[in-house]
Predict the structure.
Amino acid sequence: MPASRARGRKPVVLTIVCTIVAIWLILPTLIVIPVSFSATKTFSFPPKGWSLRFYRNLFSSDVWRQAIIHSFTVGLLVAVVATVLGTLAAIALVKMRRRWSGLLNGFLLAPLIFPGIVVAIAIYGAYLRLGLVGTYTGFVLAHTVLALPFPIVTVTAGLRALDPNYAKAAAGLGATPWNRFTQVTVPLILPSVLSGALFAFMTSFDEIVVGLFIQDASFRTLPVEMYVSVTSETDPTIAAAATVVIVLSTLAIVGFHATRVVRRKGAARGV
Amino acid sequence: MTRVTETAGGIARREKFRGAGAIPGVVVLMAVFVAPLLFMLWRSFSEPTLGLQHYAAVFTDRTSLVIILRTLEVSVIVAVVTVLLAYPYAYLMTIATPSWRTVLTLIVLIPFWTSLMARTFAWYVLFQSNGPLDHLFESLHLGGLNILGSAVAVTIGMAQVIMPFAVFPLYSTMQGIDRTLLQAAQGLGARRHVAFARIYLPLSRPGIISSWFLVFVLSLGFYVTPQILGSSHNALLSQYIAIKIGDQLDFGFGSALAVVLVIVTGVILGALGGAAKVGSGATIERV
Protein backbone atom coordinates (compact mmCIF):
# COMPACT_ATOMS: atom_id res chain seq x y z
CA MET A 1 0.00 0.00 0.00
CA PRO A 2 2.07 2.89 -1.28
CA ALA A 3 -0.06 5.64 0.23
CA SER A 4 0.23 4.29 3.77
CA ARG A 5 3.93 3.65 3.37
CA ALA A 6 4.33 7.29 2.43
CA ARG A 7 2.91 8.18 5.83
CA GLY A 8 5.41 5.83 7.43
CA ARG A 9 2.96 3.48 9.18
CA LYS A 10 0.72 0.59 8.21
CA PRO A 11 -2.93 1.33 9.05
CA VAL A 12 -3.19 -1.49 11.63
CA VAL A 13 -6.39 -0.42 13.38
CA LEU A 14 -8.08 0.31 10.06
CA THR A 15 -7.14 -3.12 8.73
CA ILE A 16 -8.48 -4.84 11.85
CA VAL A 17 -11.78 -2.94 11.70
CA CYS A 18 -12.16 -3.73 7.99
CA THR A 19 -11.36 -7.40 8.55
CA ILE A 20 -14.16 -7.55 11.10
CA VAL A 21 -16.52 -5.84 8.65
CA ALA A 22 -15.47 -8.27 5.90
CA ILE A 23 -16.09 -11.25 8.21
CA TRP A 24 -19.51 -9.85 9.12
CA LEU A 25 -20.30 -9.54 5.40
CA ILE A 26 -19.24 -13.05 4.39
CA LEU A 27 -19.03 -15.46 7.31
CA PRO A 28 -22.61 -15.50 8.68
CA THR A 29 -23.91 -16.61 5.29
CA LEU A 30 -21.48 -19.55 5.18
CA ILE A 31 -22.97 -21.09 8.32
CA VAL A 32 -25.73 -22.63 6.21
CA ILE A 33 -23.17 -24.88 4.49
CA PRO A 34 -22.29 -27.11 7.50
CA VAL A 35 -25.90 -26.96 8.68
CA SER A 36 -27.04 -28.32 5.30
CA PHE A 37 -24.94 -31.47 5.81
CA SER A 38 -26.41 -32.09 9.25
CA ALA A 39 -27.95 -35.44 10.16
CA THR A 40 -30.50 -34.01 12.60
CA LYS A 41 -33.70 -32.17 11.85
CA THR A 42 -32.79 -29.07 13.88
CA PHE A 43 -30.54 -26.28 12.63
CA SER A 44 -27.98 -26.99 15.35
CA PHE A 45 -24.40 -25.87 14.93
CA PRO A 46 -22.00 -27.59 14.93
CA PRO A 47 -24.18 -30.42 13.56
CA LYS A 48 -24.43 -33.61 15.64
CA GLY A 49 -23.52 -35.89 12.75
CA TRP A 50 -23.34 -35.61 9.01
CA SER A 51 -25.56 -36.72 6.14
CA LEU A 52 -26.78 -35.82 2.69
CA ARG A 53 -30.43 -36.33 3.57
CA PHE A 54 -31.43 -32.70 2.96
CA TYR A 55 -29.81 -32.70 -0.45
CA ARG A 56 -31.60 -35.94 -1.27
CA ASN A 57 -34.82 -34.32 -0.14
CA LEU A 58 -34.13 -31.13 -2.10
CA PHE A 59 -33.84 -33.01 -5.37
CA SER A 60 -36.40 -35.75 -4.73
CA SER A 61 -39.33 -34.05 -3.01
CA ASP A 62 -41.92 -32.77 -5.46
CA VAL A 63 -42.34 -29.41 -3.74
CA TRP A 64 -38.65 -28.48 -3.86
CA ARG A 65 -38.07 -29.91 -7.32
CA GLN A 66 -41.01 -27.94 -8.69
CA ALA A 67 -39.66 -24.78 -7.07
CA ILE A 68 -36.23 -25.31 -8.65
CA ILE A 69 -37.79 -25.92 -12.09
CA HIS A 70 -39.98 -22.82 -11.75
CA SER A 71 -37.04 -20.65 -10.70
CA PHE A 72 -34.77 -21.74 -13.54
CA THR A 73 -37.51 -21.52 -16.18
CA VAL A 74 -38.69 -18.08 -15.05
CA GLY A 75 -35.08 -16.88 -14.70
CA LEU A 76 -34.08 -17.99 -18.20
CA LEU A 77 -37.21 -16.53 -19.80
CA VAL A 78 -36.68 -13.26 -17.92
CA ALA A 79 -33.02 -13.16 -18.97
CA VAL A 80 -34.03 -13.51 -22.64
CA VAL A 81 -36.97 -11.07 -22.57
CA ALA A 82 -35.29 -8.43 -20.40
CA THR A 83 -32.06 -8.58 -22.39
CA VAL A 84 -33.82 -8.18 -25.74
CA LEU A 85 -35.99 -5.31 -24.46
CA GLY A 86 -33.07 -3.76 -22.58
CA THR A 87 -30.67 -3.94 -25.53
CA LEU A 88 -33.23 -2.34 -27.87
CA ALA A 89 -33.89 0.39 -25.29
CA ALA A 90 -30.15 0.98 -24.75
CA ILE A 91 -29.60 1.41 -28.50
CA ALA A 92 -32.42 3.95 -28.57
CA LEU A 93 -31.04 5.72 -25.49
CA VAL A 94 -27.58 6.33 -26.94
CA LYS A 95 -29.07 7.61 -30.22
CA MET A 96 -31.49 10.03 -28.59
CA ARG A 97 -30.84 13.62 -27.59
CA ARG A 98 -29.47 13.83 -24.10
CA ARG A 99 -32.47 15.58 -22.58
CA TRP A 100 -34.87 12.86 -23.72
CA SER A 101 -32.54 9.98 -22.99
CA GLY A 102 -32.14 11.22 -19.39
CA LEU A 103 -35.90 11.21 -18.87
CA LEU A 104 -36.40 7.85 -20.55
CA ASN A 105 -33.50 6.31 -18.64
CA GLY A 106 -34.96 7.55 -15.34
CA PHE A 107 -38.32 6.04 -16.26
CA LEU A 108 -36.86 2.66 -17.24
CA LEU A 109 -34.77 2.44 -14.05
CA ALA A 110 -37.69 3.46 -11.79
CA PRO A 111 -38.46 -0.12 -10.62
CA LEU A 112 -35.06 -0.13 -8.88
CA ILE A 113 -35.88 2.74 -6.52
CA PHE A 114 -39.48 1.85 -5.67
CA PRO A 115 -39.75 -0.01 -2.36
CA GLY A 116 -40.15 -3.73 -3.13
CA ILE A 117 -43.26 -4.08 -0.98
CA VAL A 118 -45.02 -1.31 -2.95
CA VAL A 119 -44.25 -2.92 -6.32
CA ALA A 120 -45.35 -6.25 -4.85
CA ILE A 121 -48.79 -5.15 -3.63
CA ALA A 122 -49.44 -3.06 -6.75
CA ILE A 123 -48.71 -6.00 -9.06
CA TYR A 124 -50.59 -8.37 -6.75
CA GLY A 125 -53.68 -6.13 -6.86
CA ALA A 126 -53.60 -6.06 -10.64
CA TYR A 127 -52.85 -9.81 -10.98
CA LEU A 128 -55.78 -10.73 -8.72
CA ARG A 129 -58.10 -9.00 -11.20
CA LEU A 130 -56.35 -10.48 -14.25
CA GLY A 131 -56.00 -14.02 -12.93
CA LEU A 132 -52.20 -13.98 -13.22
CA VAL A 133 -51.43 -15.06 -9.64
CA GLY A 134 -49.39 -18.28 -9.57
CA THR A 135 -48.69 -18.39 -13.32
CA TYR A 136 -45.55 -18.45 -15.47
CA THR A 137 -46.80 -15.38 -17.39
CA GLY A 138 -47.30 -13.48 -14.15
CA PHE A 139 -43.84 -14.27 -12.78
CA VAL A 140 -42.02 -13.63 -16.07
CA LEU A 141 -43.73 -10.25 -16.60
CA ALA A 142 -43.17 -9.06 -13.02
CA HIS A 143 -39.53 -10.18 -12.93
CA THR A 144 -38.87 -8.67 -16.37
CA VAL A 145 -39.85 -5.24 -15.04
CA LEU A 146 -37.47 -5.65 -12.08
CA ALA A 147 -34.62 -7.06 -14.22
CA LEU A 148 -34.89 -4.63 -17.15
CA PRO A 149 -32.62 -1.94 -15.60
CA PHE A 150 -29.59 -4.28 -15.57
CA PRO A 151 -29.24 -4.98 -19.33
CA ILE A 152 -30.08 -1.33 -20.02
CA VAL A 153 -27.22 -0.14 -17.80
CA THR A 154 -24.63 -2.67 -19.07
CA VAL A 155 -25.51 -2.34 -22.78
CA THR A 156 -25.67 1.48 -22.61
CA ALA A 157 -22.20 1.46 -21.06
CA GLY A 158 -21.00 -0.96 -23.76
CA LEU A 159 -22.40 1.19 -26.56
CA ARG A 160 -20.95 4.39 -25.15
CA ALA A 161 -17.51 2.75 -24.99
CA LEU A 162 -17.83 1.61 -28.62
CA ASP A 163 -15.48 3.26 -31.10
CA PRO A 164 -17.82 4.82 -33.75
CA ASN A 165 -15.05 4.37 -36.36
CA TYR A 166 -15.84 0.63 -36.63
CA ALA A 167 -19.35 1.34 -37.85
CA LYS A 168 -18.08 4.11 -40.13
CA ALA A 169 -15.42 1.80 -41.57
CA ALA A 170 -18.07 -0.88 -42.20
CA ALA A 171 -20.28 1.72 -43.86
CA GLY A 172 -17.37 2.86 -46.00
CA LEU A 173 -16.88 -0.75 -47.08
CA GLY A 174 -20.50 -0.84 -48.23
CA ALA A 175 -22.27 -2.60 -45.34
CA THR A 176 -25.99 -1.93 -45.06
CA PRO A 177 -27.27 -0.59 -41.69
CA TRP A 178 -28.61 -4.06 -40.83
CA ASN A 179 -25.31 -5.79 -41.63
CA ARG A 180 -23.44 -3.10 -39.76
CA PHE A 181 -25.61 -3.76 -36.73
CA THR A 182 -25.51 -7.57 -36.81
CA GLN A 183 -21.90 -8.04 -37.91
CA VAL A 184 -20.10 -5.14 -36.25
CA THR A 185 -22.08 -3.61 -33.39
CA VAL A 186 -23.58 -6.78 -31.89
CA PRO A 187 -20.32 -8.78 -31.69
CA LEU A 188 -18.59 -5.79 -30.12
CA ILE A 189 -21.25 -5.21 -27.45
CA LEU A 190 -21.85 -8.94 -26.87
CA PRO A 191 -19.96 -8.99 -23.53
CA SER A 192 -22.19 -6.19 -22.17
CA VAL A 193 -25.29 -7.95 -23.48
CA LEU A 194 -24.25 -11.21 -21.80
CA SER A 195 -23.46 -9.57 -18.47
CA GLY A 196 -26.83 -7.82 -18.66
CA ALA A 197 -28.45 -11.22 -19.22
CA LEU A 198 -26.56 -12.72 -16.26
CA PHE A 199 -27.69 -9.91 -13.93
CA ALA A 200 -31.26 -10.19 -15.24
CA PHE A 201 -31.25 -13.94 -14.53
CA MET A 202 -29.85 -13.43 -11.04
CA THR A 203 -32.39 -10.69 -10.29
CA SER A 204 -35.22 -13.04 -11.17
CA PHE A 205 -33.63 -16.07 -9.50
CA ASP A 206 -33.24 -14.20 -6.18
CA GLU A 207 -36.45 -12.19 -6.30
CA ILE A 208 -38.56 -12.75 -3.23
CA VAL A 209 -40.88 -9.89 -2.25
CA VAL A 210 -43.03 -9.72 -5.39
CA GLY A 211 -42.83 -13.51 -5.63
CA LEU A 212 -44.33 -13.92 -2.14
CA PHE A 213 -47.47 -12.07 -3.23
CA ILE A 214 -47.98 -13.50 -6.73
CA GLN A 215 -47.30 -17.12 -5.73
CA ASP A 216 -49.86 -19.73 -4.83
CA ALA A 217 -49.45 -23.20 -3.37
CA SER A 218 -49.13 -24.75 -6.84
CA PHE A 219 -46.56 -22.26 -8.17
CA ARG A 220 -43.64 -21.17 -6.04
CA THR A 221 -40.10 -20.17 -6.95
CA LEU A 222 -37.13 -21.37 -4.91
CA PRO A 223 -36.78 -18.25 -2.68
CA VAL A 224 -40.54 -18.29 -2.05
CA GLU A 225 -40.41 -21.98 -1.07
CA MET A 226 -37.48 -21.17 1.25
CA TYR A 227 -39.46 -18.35 2.85
CA VAL A 228 -42.49 -20.57 3.38
CA SER A 229 -40.31 -23.28 4.90
CA VAL A 230 -38.71 -20.85 7.40
CA THR A 231 -41.91 -19.13 8.46
CA SER A 232 -44.34 -22.01 8.61
CA GLU A 233 -42.88 -25.46 8.22
CA THR A 234 -39.26 -25.22 9.40
CA ASP A 235 -38.35 -27.88 6.87
CA PRO A 236 -34.54 -28.25 7.18
CA THR A 237 -34.22 -28.88 3.44
CA ILE A 238 -33.99 -25.09 3.20
CA ALA A 239 -30.36 -25.29 4.41
CA ALA A 240 -29.47 -27.41 1.37
CA ALA A 241 -31.43 -25.08 -0.92
CA ALA A 242 -29.66 -22.04 0.57
CA THR A 243 -26.26 -23.68 0.10
CA VAL A 244 -26.95 -24.47 -3.55
CA VAL A 245 -28.13 -20.91 -4.18
CA ILE A 246 -25.12 -19.38 -2.39
CA VAL A 247 -22.63 -21.53 -4.30
CA LEU A 248 -24.31 -20.77 -7.64
CA SER A 249 -24.42 -17.00 -7.15
CA THR A 250 -20.87 -16.83 -5.79
CA LEU A 251 -19.60 -18.79 -8.81
CA ALA A 252 -21.54 -16.48 -11.13
CA ILE A 253 -20.23 -13.24 -9.64
CA VAL A 254 -16.63 -14.43 -9.23
CA GLY A 255 -16.68 -15.93 -12.72
CA PHE A 256 -18.05 -12.69 -14.10
CA HIS A 257 -15.24 -10.67 -12.52
CA ALA A 258 -12.63 -13.23 -13.55
CA THR A 259 -13.66 -13.09 -17.23
CA ARG A 260 -13.57 -9.30 -17.06
CA VAL A 261 -10.05 -9.34 -15.65
CA VAL A 262 -8.90 -11.91 -18.23
CA ARG A 263 -10.48 -9.89 -21.03
CA ARG A 264 -8.85 -6.67 -19.81
CA LYS A 265 -5.46 -8.38 -19.61
CA GLY A 266 -6.01 -9.91 -23.05
CA ALA A 267 -6.90 -6.50 -24.45
CA ALA A 268 -3.79 -5.01 -22.87
CA ARG A 269 -1.65 -7.64 -24.60
CA GLY A 270 -3.43 -6.92 -27.84
CA VAL A 271 -5.13 -10.32 -27.95
CA MET B 1 -26.24 2.10 -53.22
CA THR B 2 -29.37 3.76 -51.85
CA ARG B 3 -27.40 4.84 -48.82
CA VAL B 4 -25.35 7.31 -50.81
CA THR B 5 -28.36 9.00 -52.31
CA GLU B 6 -30.22 9.13 -49.00
CA THR B 7 -32.94 11.78 -49.17
CA ALA B 8 -33.53 14.54 -46.66
CA GLY B 9 -36.87 12.93 -45.91
CA GLY B 10 -35.19 9.64 -45.07
CA ILE B 11 -32.83 11.32 -42.64
CA ALA B 12 -35.67 13.21 -40.97
CA ARG B 13 -37.64 9.99 -40.63
CA ARG B 14 -34.67 8.25 -39.03
CA GLU B 15 -34.24 11.17 -36.63
CA LYS B 16 -37.86 10.80 -35.60
CA PHE B 17 -37.62 7.07 -34.92
CA ARG B 18 -34.31 7.06 -33.11
CA GLY B 19 -36.14 6.26 -29.90
CA ALA B 20 -38.31 3.51 -31.41
CA GLY B 21 -36.21 0.73 -29.88
CA ALA B 22 -37.31 1.78 -26.43
CA ILE B 23 -40.99 1.25 -27.23
CA PRO B 24 -41.28 -2.48 -26.29
CA GLY B 25 -39.59 -1.89 -22.92
CA VAL B 26 -41.72 1.17 -22.23
CA VAL B 27 -44.90 -0.75 -23.09
CA VAL B 28 -44.04 -3.62 -20.71
CA LEU B 29 -43.14 -1.15 -17.96
CA MET B 30 -46.41 0.76 -18.50
CA ALA B 31 -48.49 -2.42 -18.36
CA VAL B 32 -46.79 -4.27 -15.49
CA PHE B 33 -45.45 -1.40 -13.37
CA VAL B 34 -47.10 1.98 -14.03
CA ALA B 35 -50.67 0.75 -14.53
CA PRO B 36 -50.68 -1.39 -11.34
CA LEU B 37 -49.24 1.53 -9.36
CA LEU B 38 -51.93 3.89 -10.69
CA PHE B 39 -54.58 1.27 -9.93
CA MET B 40 -53.19 1.07 -6.38
CA LEU B 41 -53.28 4.87 -6.07
CA TRP B 42 -56.89 4.93 -7.27
CA ARG B 43 -57.92 2.25 -4.79
CA SER B 44 -56.42 4.22 -1.90
CA PHE B 45 -58.99 6.96 -2.61
CA SER B 46 -61.92 4.89 -3.72
CA GLU B 47 -62.35 1.71 -1.67
CA PRO B 48 -64.94 1.24 -0.33
CA THR B 49 -66.13 4.83 -0.86
CA LEU B 50 -64.58 7.81 -2.59
CA GLY B 51 -62.64 10.05 -0.22
CA LEU B 52 -59.52 10.65 1.84
CA GLN B 53 -60.61 8.56 4.82
CA HIS B 54 -57.68 6.10 4.50
CA TYR B 55 -55.11 8.88 4.49
CA ALA B 56 -56.77 10.42 7.53
CA ALA B 57 -56.61 6.99 9.18
CA VAL B 58 -52.89 6.56 8.40
CA PHE B 59 -52.11 9.65 10.48
CA THR B 60 -54.69 9.20 13.25
CA ASP B 61 -54.83 5.43 13.78
CA ARG B 62 -52.66 4.59 16.78
CA THR B 63 -51.28 1.34 15.36
CA SER B 64 -50.16 2.87 12.11
CA LEU B 65 -48.58 5.89 13.84
CA VAL B 66 -46.62 3.63 16.18
CA ILE B 67 -45.47 1.54 13.23
CA ILE B 68 -44.47 4.56 11.14
CA LEU B 69 -42.44 6.02 14.02
CA ARG B 70 -40.81 2.63 14.68
CA THR B 71 -39.93 2.29 11.00
CA LEU B 72 -38.31 5.74 11.00
CA GLU B 73 -36.39 4.89 14.18
CA VAL B 74 -35.11 1.53 12.89
CA SER B 75 -34.13 3.09 9.55
CA VAL B 76 -32.20 5.90 11.27
CA ILE B 77 -30.32 3.37 13.41
CA VAL B 78 -29.59 1.06 10.47
CA ALA B 79 -28.32 4.01 8.42
CA VAL B 80 -26.01 5.20 11.23
CA VAL B 81 -24.63 1.70 11.87
CA THR B 82 -24.14 0.99 8.17
CA VAL B 83 -22.35 4.26 7.41
CA LEU B 84 -20.12 3.86 10.49
CA LEU B 85 -19.05 0.42 9.23
CA ALA B 86 -18.87 1.39 5.58
CA TYR B 87 -16.70 4.48 6.13
CA PRO B 88 -13.48 2.74 7.23
CA TYR B 89 -14.10 0.01 4.67
CA ALA B 90 -14.46 2.47 1.77
CA TYR B 91 -11.41 4.36 3.08
CA LEU B 92 -9.32 1.19 3.02
CA MET B 93 -10.49 0.58 -0.55
CA THR B 94 -9.10 3.96 -1.61
CA ILE B 95 -5.64 3.35 -0.16
CA ALA B 96 -5.35 -0.38 -0.98
CA THR B 97 -3.34 -1.74 -3.91
CA PRO B 98 -5.42 -2.53 -7.04
CA SER B 99 -5.53 -6.26 -6.38
CA TRP B 100 -6.58 -5.81 -2.75
CA ARG B 101 -9.18 -3.31 -3.94
CA THR B 102 -10.63 -6.01 -6.22
CA VAL B 103 -10.80 -8.41 -3.26
CA LEU B 104 -12.47 -5.78 -1.06
CA THR B 105 -14.95 -4.97 -3.84
CA LEU B 106 -15.79 -8.66 -4.29
CA ILE B 107 -16.33 -9.08 -0.54
CA VAL B 108 -19.00 -6.36 -0.73
CA LEU B 109 -20.48 -7.58 -4.03
CA ILE B 110 -20.77 -11.30 -3.25
CA PRO B 111 -23.34 -10.79 -0.49
CA PHE B 112 -25.09 -8.24 -2.71
CA TRP B 113 -25.67 -10.91 -5.36
CA THR B 114 -26.25 -13.78 -2.94
CA SER B 115 -29.90 -14.60 -2.50
CA LEU B 116 -31.45 -12.32 0.12
CA MET B 117 -33.47 -15.28 1.33
CA ALA B 118 -30.38 -17.49 1.83
CA ARG B 119 -28.59 -14.76 3.76
CA THR B 120 -31.58 -13.95 5.95
CA PHE B 121 -31.99 -17.66 6.68
CA ALA B 122 -28.33 -17.77 7.74
CA TRP B 123 -28.96 -14.98 10.28
CA TYR B 124 -32.02 -16.90 11.43
CA VAL B 125 -29.87 -19.97 12.14
CA LEU B 126 -27.26 -17.86 13.95
CA PHE B 127 -29.74 -15.96 16.11
CA GLN B 128 -32.10 -18.77 17.13
CA SER B 129 -32.17 -19.88 20.74
CA ASN B 130 -29.78 -22.83 21.12
CA GLY B 131 -28.07 -21.46 18.03
CA PRO B 132 -24.31 -20.98 17.66
CA LEU B 133 -24.24 -17.39 18.99
CA ASP B 134 -26.39 -18.42 21.95
CA HIS B 135 -23.91 -21.24 22.79
CA LEU B 136 -20.92 -18.97 22.25
CA PHE B 137 -22.28 -16.41 24.73
CA GLU B 138 -23.08 -19.15 27.24
CA SER B 139 -19.61 -20.65 27.02
CA LEU B 140 -18.15 -17.16 27.60
CA HIS B 141 -20.42 -16.88 30.70
CA LEU B 142 -22.16 -13.88 29.22
CA GLY B 143 -25.57 -15.49 29.62
CA GLY B 144 -27.47 -16.73 26.61
CA LEU B 145 -28.02 -14.63 23.53
CA ASN B 146 -31.60 -14.85 22.46
CA ILE B 147 -32.19 -12.04 20.02
CA LEU B 148 -34.21 -13.68 17.25
CA GLY B 149 -37.34 -11.55 16.92
CA SER B 150 -35.72 -8.44 18.41
CA ALA B 151 -34.95 -5.07 16.85
CA VAL B 152 -31.23 -5.80 17.35
CA ALA B 153 -31.43 -8.88 15.12
CA VAL B 154 -33.32 -6.90 12.48
CA THR B 155 -30.74 -4.08 12.60
CA ILE B 156 -27.74 -6.43 12.26
CA GLY B 157 -29.33 -8.33 9.37
CA MET B 158 -30.53 -5.23 7.52
CA ALA B 159 -27.20 -3.41 7.88
CA GLN B 160 -25.39 -6.38 6.33
CA VAL B 161 -27.80 -6.60 3.42
CA ILE B 162 -27.60 -2.88 2.72
CA MET B 163 -23.82 -2.35 3.10
CA PRO B 164 -22.96 -2.06 -0.64
CA PHE B 165 -25.28 0.94 -0.97
CA ALA B 166 -23.18 2.78 1.61
CA VAL B 167 -19.74 1.56 0.53
CA PHE B 168 -19.91 2.57 -3.14
CA PRO B 169 -21.10 6.21 -2.77
CA LEU B 170 -18.52 6.70 0.01
CA TYR B 171 -15.79 5.12 -2.08
CA SER B 172 -16.57 7.28 -5.11
CA THR B 173 -16.44 10.47 -3.01
CA MET B 174 -13.21 9.43 -1.30
CA GLN B 175 -11.58 8.56 -4.60
CA GLY B 176 -12.00 12.19 -5.64
CA ILE B 177 -10.24 13.52 -2.54
CA ASP B 178 -6.70 14.72 -3.16
CA ARG B 179 -4.62 12.81 -0.60
CA THR B 180 -1.67 15.19 -0.93
CA LEU B 181 -3.78 17.66 1.11
CA LEU B 182 -3.28 15.33 4.09
CA GLN B 183 0.47 15.29 3.57
CA ALA B 184 0.44 19.06 3.23
CA ALA B 185 -1.40 19.41 6.54
CA GLN B 186 1.03 17.03 8.24
CA GLY B 187 3.93 18.90 6.65
CA LEU B 188 2.57 22.05 8.25
CA GLY B 189 2.67 20.33 11.63
CA ALA B 190 -0.81 18.83 12.03
CA ARG B 191 -0.86 15.44 13.66
CA ARG B 192 -2.27 12.55 11.62
CA HIS B 193 -5.67 12.35 13.27
CA VAL B 194 -6.03 16.15 13.30
CA ALA B 195 -5.26 16.30 9.58
CA PHE B 196 -7.82 13.54 9.03
CA ALA B 197 -10.54 15.21 11.12
CA ARG B 198 -10.00 18.72 9.75
CA ILE B 199 -9.26 17.95 6.09
CA TYR B 200 -10.39 14.49 5.04
CA LEU B 201 -13.62 14.16 7.01
CA PRO B 202 -15.14 17.45 5.78
CA LEU B 203 -14.14 16.62 2.19
CA SER B 204 -15.83 13.24 2.44
CA ARG B 205 -19.04 14.74 3.87
CA PRO B 206 -21.01 14.64 0.58
CA GLY B 207 -20.39 10.88 0.44
CA ILE B 208 -21.41 10.42 4.08
CA ILE B 209 -24.63 12.37 3.55
CA SER B 210 -25.63 10.66 0.33
CA SER B 211 -24.88 7.15 1.58
CA TRP B 212 -26.69 7.83 4.88
CA PHE B 213 -29.84 8.99 3.14
CA LEU B 214 -29.68 6.20 0.57
CA VAL B 215 -29.46 3.55 3.29
CA PHE B 216 -32.15 5.31 5.33
CA VAL B 217 -34.59 5.44 2.45
CA LEU B 218 -33.92 1.83 1.38
CA SER B 219 -34.42 0.67 4.98
CA LEU B 220 -37.90 2.23 5.06
CA GLY B 221 -39.09 -0.36 2.53
CA PHE B 222 -37.37 -3.52 3.84
CA TYR B 223 -39.71 -6.46 4.12
CA VAL B 224 -38.17 -9.93 4.10
CA THR B 225 -35.38 -9.33 6.63
CA PRO B 226 -37.59 -7.80 9.38
CA GLN B 227 -40.28 -10.37 8.62
CA ILE B 228 -37.96 -13.30 9.33
CA LEU B 229 -35.60 -11.83 11.95
CA GLY B 230 -38.14 -9.64 13.75
CA SER B 231 -41.52 -10.41 15.23
CA SER B 232 -45.05 -9.13 14.96
CA HIS B 233 -44.52 -7.05 18.13
CA ASN B 234 -42.02 -4.87 16.32
CA ALA B 235 -43.49 -4.89 12.82
CA LEU B 236 -42.27 -2.28 10.36
CA LEU B 237 -44.31 -0.33 7.82
CA SER B 238 -43.71 -2.82 5.00
CA GLN B 239 -44.90 -5.68 7.22
CA TYR B 240 -48.00 -3.70 8.17
CA ILE B 241 -48.75 -3.10 4.47
CA ALA B 242 -48.28 -6.81 3.78
CA ILE B 243 -50.68 -7.75 6.60
CA LYS B 244 -53.32 -5.29 5.39
CA ILE B 245 -53.11 -6.42 1.77
CA GLY B 246 -52.00 -10.04 1.93
CA ASP B 247 -53.93 -11.24 4.99
CA GLN B 248 -56.88 -8.86 5.21
CA LEU B 249 -57.24 -7.88 1.52
CA ASP B 250 -57.84 -4.31 2.74
CA PHE B 251 -56.67 -2.74 -0.51
CA GLY B 252 -57.95 0.74 0.40
CA PHE B 253 -55.99 1.27 3.62
CA GLY B 254 -53.00 -0.88 2.54
CA SER B 255 -52.67 1.13 -0.67
CA ALA B 256 -52.81 4.43 1.24
CA LEU B 257 -49.94 3.21 3.47
CA ALA B 258 -47.97 2.24 0.35
CA VAL B 259 -48.60 5.63 -1.26
CA VAL B 260 -47.29 7.36 1.88
CA LEU B 261 -44.16 5.18 1.75
CA VAL B 262 -43.61 6.03 -1.93
CA ILE B 263 -44.03 9.77 -1.29
CA VAL B 264 -41.56 9.76 1.60
CA THR B 265 -39.07 7.72 -0.47
CA GLY B 266 -39.51 9.98 -3.49
CA VAL B 267 -39.12 13.23 -1.54
CA ILE B 268 -35.92 12.07 0.15
CA LEU B 269 -34.39 10.63 -3.03
CA GLY B 270 -35.40 13.76 -4.97
CA ALA B 271 -33.82 16.03 -2.37
CA LEU B 272 -30.75 13.79 -2.36
CA GLY B 273 -30.45 13.88 -6.16
CA GLY B 274 -30.92 17.66 -6.18
CA ALA B 275 -28.42 18.23 -3.36
CA ALA B 276 -25.91 15.91 -5.01
CA LYS B 277 -26.26 17.75 -8.32
CA VAL B 278 -25.72 21.14 -6.67
CA GLY B 279 -23.08 19.93 -4.25
CA SER B 280 -20.91 17.62 -6.29
CA GLY B 281 -22.09 16.84 -9.77
CA ALA B 282 -18.80 15.09 -10.40
CA THR B 283 -19.45 12.54 -7.68
CA ILE B 284 -22.78 11.45 -9.14
CA GLU B 285 -21.28 11.18 -12.61
CA ARG B 286 -18.72 8.72 -11.37
CA VAL B 287 -21.09 6.40 -9.50
Summary: Chain A is about 80% helix and 0% strand.
